[in-house]
């Protein structure tokens, strides 16, 4: 067979090449199985930007080739060893690696300007093996992970080792031995964020996750100061708490001693609005200096305007080696910063309030009430955050840390949220939002620096007005998920991305888009929206919830459940009559197999039952044609089911809520109460 060029269709996910040199063209968000066959085969990415390649299943693909433009190629430790050449196009190109072991000795890099990584844990070291110094210098080290760089053959020169140290590499290894970066290092500190209220001191290391190390037996000095413009409102200090490790010999002032665990490790050489300088003695070991760094505070006393400052921290050892960290400080006037213990109820005021929580703390059951102003919940220190058990009310922004954030939210928690910004300045920062619920309204909500939005439940419905947000959603671990674009339409390329991300049901301004993915034998859970939906089951035992709107429901084969759990129209005007707002049509009801489930929170006269233990409908509650008794609550006439809250009484009128297209001969046995 002669060599060929194979162009991928947008939904095509499997390629098999020829015995020649094949080229497979794909978009930037791809998932599938690719077998190049014989020859020297290339996977060509046709668009620049963020190219997700880490979960491909590839065989006999020798080259990945990019398009022109700034591009990040995201590969994993299962994919990278299978290719021989990564070739970037014209532009600034980054290799982003997921995993803890990266062997670059057999990979040729062309037009790749930076190598960065995200490990599976902030505490797990990353091991990178290179074949030359030039490749090692491409490594962009995150300050939040320990990195081991190994030269496969030969040795680094002294100048090369120094150059790698300057890039933040801590451990080096070559054929001559192991080397440790001798300079002081403040890990988990550089480009971090802190927040506080005007007039109140805030820790620079919020979350106390800064880790300090130094090769020298003791440190020489510490300088803390405002980077850039300094003013009289700036005030630096050291937090001293009863029983804490750090203490001072007197009130903060020039000449006061600094103690850790009762041992004097230095004294304050200078202290003013310009900053604080501490001179250390021989007792200032790395462990003791770490305690001082974790206790540093910043206060801004200007209550009239928002203060945003960059604070510089410099540590030096006796050999003149230094490390520098810059922290971004935000001080809000007229508001309050609240540290959130698990049992506490957050209550803001009329200003711009700041609430802060750390990993491992649930937000309180009673919720956070922001009050007036524009309020923000800060997630300090990185890690996993679970916003549940309560509501966030009048809090407009959720802001992440400068580390990997995983934020799990329930739908009510996002009711008032307008912005979720998990932005971190560290390269390799990987941030995830997880949606724990079955319906989310993300319209008018902005997601910044979020890498992926994970769905946690089958049948999740997400309404949104942003194509960019839709492309972040990952439903590959769930089934029968539904994305609804409330404004505009998806392009064919957008649809291919959503399909690759496991989204089975897609609706936009052009209507519903056919879904080729679900197995026809799967037991589906189909959930409608507030609009008019057409929900179609398969061959399995499906559960179908139309929700609001005049929906068309089709069960297909199998024993299907049609659930009615949404409030009926009030009927006070022509526009809110139920036949206008919530009258669903069942096209294929099959007596003896299918069931209609009625929620007793809506149909209050029908008795007890629940999802886990449905109740049977009392036969006396069901009547054909017309109510003749006061307990004839369900009326069935000419294919239409009515609910009458007082039967033959005159206070309430019958409300039609179901039409059966086949006008099946219903009885009380066809209904269950939940």
Could you tell me the number of beta strands?
63
From the alpha carbons, calculate the radius of gyration and give it in angstroms: 31 Å
| Broad shape | flat
Number of domains: 3
Distance between the termini: 63 Å
Low-confidence stretches: 1-12, 335-350, 361-366
* Helical segment count: 6
Mean pLDDT: 81
Order of strands in the sheet with the most strands?
20-31-30-23-28-27-26-25
Q: Give the biggest beta sheet.
A: 8 strands, mixed
| Class of secondary structure makeup | mainly beta
Oligomer: single chain
Helix content: under 10%
Q: How much beta, percentage-wise?
A: 35-45%
Explain what this protein looks like in three dimensions.
With 674 residues, the protein is mainly beta. It has 3 domains: 5-181, no CATH class; 186-332, Immunoglobulin-like (Sandwich); 520-674, Serralysin-like metalloprotease, C-terminal (Alkaline Protease, subunit P, domain 1, 2 Solenoid), CATH 2.150.10.10. Helix content is 6%, strand content 38%. Strands 20-31-30-23-28-27-26-25 form an 8-stranded mixed sheet. β27 (263-272) and β28 (275-280) form a beta hairpin.
Indicate the topology.
Blueprint: E1 5-7, E2 14-16, E3 23-26, E4 33-35, E5 42-45, E6 49-52, E7 57-59, E8 63-65, E9 71-76, E10 85-87, E11 93-98, E12 101-103, E13 108-110, E14 114-118, E15 126-130, H1 133-136, E16 147-151, H2 158-166, E17 171-174, E18 177-180, E19 185-187, E20 193-197, E21 202-203, E22 211-213, E23 221-227, E24 234-238, E25 246-248, E26 257-260, E27 263-272, E28 275-280, H3 286-295, E29 296-300, E30 307-316, E31 322-332, E32 337-339, E33 346-347, E34 354-358, E35 368-369, E36 376-380, E37 383-387, E38 392-393, E39 397-399, E40 405-409, E41 419-421, E42 432-435, E43 439-441, E44 446-448, E45 452-455, E46 461-464, H4 467-472, E47 473-474, E48 482-485, H5 492-500, E49 505-508, E50 511-513, E51 525-527, E52 534-536, E53 543-545, E54 552-554, E55 561-564, H6 578-581, E56 584-586, E57 595-598, E58 615-616, E59 622-624, E60 634-637, E61 640-643, E62 655-660, E63 671-673
Parallel strand pairs: 1-3, 2-4, 3-5, 4-7, 5-8, 6-9, 8-10, 9-11, 10-13, 11-14, 12-15, 15-16, 16-17, 20-31, 32-34, 33-35, 34-36, 35-38, 36-39, 37-40, 39-41, 40-42, 41-44, 42-45, 43-46, 45-47, 46-48, 48-49, 51-53, 52-54, 53-55, 54-56, 55-57, 56-62, 57-63, 59-60
Antiparallel strand pairs: 17-18, 19-22, 21-29, 23-28, 23-30, 24-29, 25-26, 26-27, 27-28, 30-31, 49-50, 58-63, 60-61, 61-62
InterPro entries: Hemolysin-typ_Ca-bd_CS, Hemolysn_Ca-bd, Serralysin-like_metalloprot_C
Organism: Microvirga guangxiensis
GO molecular function: calcium ion binding
